[in-house]
Amino acid sequence: MILNKVLNPPKSELESLLKLYQDGKYDESVKIAESIFQKYPQHKFSLEVLARIFQSRGKKDIEVLTIFQKILLIEPNAPTYIDLAILQQKMGKIDDAIMSYKQALILDPNFSVAYNNLGSLQSIIGNFDEAKIYFEKAIASKPDYTDAINNLGTMFHHTEKYEKAITCFKKVLKIQPDNKSAHHNLGAAFKKLKKYQKAIKAFSKALKIERKKTTLKLYGETLLNINEHKKGLEYLQECSGVIKFSMSNFKILS
Q: Which of 41, 148, 155, 164 is the most buried (most CB within 10 A)?
C-alpha cells in the first residue's frame, strides 16, 4: 500500500465517514476511518472519529488514550490535550493529566476549560491555593463561566471560607437563576453559618428544580435545626427511606 504522507483524503471519503458516524453506523464508520488513516497517516480527522466511536462504545481507556496521542503527534492542539487530560484523570494518572492540561494552556493561554479543570483537579488532591489560582484564571478568561465560579465557591466552602463561597454562588445565580447546584451549595454554606432560614430558602429553590437526595438530606437536617421535627424527618425519610442522618457531615456537589 502506498502511503500518502502529504495529500488529504478525498472530500467524498470524509463526507461518507461523517455521515455514517452521524447516522450511528459505527461498525462501518470504524472500517472506513481505519482505512483512511492507513492511506493518509498525517490526516487526523479519521482518528478523531475513531476516538469518539470508541468512547461511545465503551472501549478500553488505553485504546482511546492511544488514539489521542496519535492525533497529538500529527497536530498538537488544545482541545485534544483536554480530552487526553480528562481521560488520564479518569484512569488515575493525575500527574499526566496535569501535564496535559498545562500543554493545552501553552497552545491556548485563554482556554478557560483547561484552567477550570486544572482547578478542579488541584482541589481533589487538596492543593487549594493552586486551585484558587486556576479557577480565578478561568473566570478572568470567561467572566460568565458559571462552572468555574461555582467550583471556586465550593473550594472556599471546603476551606471554611463560607462568606466568600456565598458570594460565588450568588454570582452564579445572577447568571443562571435555575442553577440547581448553586442553590444547593448556597444552602449548604448558609447552613454552616447557622443561617437556617436562608439555607431553607436556597434548598427549597434547589428542590423545585430537582429533588436530589443530597439536598433533601440537608433540607431535612436544617428543618430539625429550627425544631420543625415532623417536616424535617419527612424529608430525611424521602431521601433515604430510613431515618439516618448526620448533623455535621455532608458533601457539596459541583
A: 148
Neighbours of 15 (CB within 10 A): 10
**pLDDT tens readout for residues 29-55:** 999 999 999 999 988 999 999 999 998
**Considering the entire predicted model, what is its pTM?**
0.84
Report the alpha-carbon distance of residue 73 to residue 58 in Å, rounded. Answer: 24
Residues belonging to the chain: 254
- CATH superfamily name and code, 155-254: Tetratricopeptide repeat domain (1.25.40.10)
The Cα 147–Cα 1 span in angstroms is: 49
Let me know: does 111 contact 102? Beta carbons within 8 Å.
no
CA geometry: angle 113, 251, 116, nearest 5 deg = 10
Per-residue pLDDT reduced to its tens digit, 180-189:
999 999 999 9
